[in-house]
Amino acid sequence: MNQSRLDLEADSWVFALRIYAEPGVADACLRLQDQAGVDVMTFLMIVFAAVRHRILLTASEIRALDDVCRPWREQIVQPLRAIRGRLKTGPLPAPTSETEPFRSTIKAAELAAERLQNRLLAEHVPLRPPERDILAPEDLHSVLRSVVMLALEKRPGKPLSDLHSSIDAVVDAAMRDTH
Known about the structure:
Elements lengths: L2 H19 L3 H12 L3 H14 L5 H28 L13 H25 L12 H16 L11 H14 L2
């Protein structure tokens, strides 16, 4: 990765952590992940490109970005997430105070895997001159709606309308970050 991509990776990671920590954003992202199959790291990279670089990714760019990180996500991140989740309820000897340190180790590995996914995304996010001087909330909402619609292609029957409030929560937090 050249230096500008290294900076992009570091900046996008800090941005993702900050936005995710905003009130309501984690719940919104998890709802989009659980109900629509949205990849949160890709979603937040797309928000970053829009907010920090004023680049609104097209549907084909979103799909290409998702294609790049899908193997890592499916083979590494999701299995770690599944293990961490299973340790909340079992199998025996979980969940106990004795298995909680192990669960914390898995959580740290999952976060590290997401950081590596962020690096992969930073290497492949399309960069070009800013498309506009100011990002309008409706522009960001439109791009994020495209992300969710692409994810919903794999989950027919789930209406996009059920997820607008989650998109709105992320847009609101991201737009506060632009000021």
